[in-house]
Amino acid sequence: MTFLTPQAAEHHRIETFTDDPASELADVATRLTRFDELGISMERQETLDDLTTTMVEKTGFLYGMVNAFSDKQRFLGLHNPPPESGYPMVDRTMSRQHGWCPEVVRRRRGLPLPDVGASPRFQSNAVVDAIGIQSYFGTPIIDLATGLALVTVCIIDPEPRSLGDAKRLQGVVRTTARDAAHILKIHTPPAD
Prior knowledge:
This protein is α+β, with helices and mostly antiparallel strands. The chain has helices at residues 6-11, 21-38, 46-59, 101-107, 126-131, 163-184; strands at 63-69, 73-79, 93-94, 111-113, 135-142, 149-157. Residues 1-18 have low confidence and may be disordered.
């Protein structure tokens, strides 16, 4: 793996999503170093693909991701709908500014959006426009050693969900995140 100093990251024009780009670029360098220390490849991992498929099956969502935050968002685990379904297929990488996982990384807390359109703050997004996503549930995997959100786990779907089902859906995502942390050997803070 290549290590990026904040200066090198800036040279590679890593897109930032906070009001403090210098700090965020330092966080990128720390994340890359930590991924290397943990032996986490930024490539597809079949075990994580299987984990996202299980999460999607439990929730009825079309898409699931285990998303590593480095120079880009990299989906180490990904579940797309079947190609014949007619729904768009998500690639393995995405801009660090797209979707709602950057917000999960920034705030270091889960983000349940059962009806994206009902939230003025979150209804406008490149993912909504490109794929038509109307519901999102995501949670971070916080690394105990660095305190950073290294990875996010999320589900997205073109159909809004009810508030009544939001707790269950977010619970499935949290459980999947614990399983992903175990697979990736990321030591996380004790649960509250």
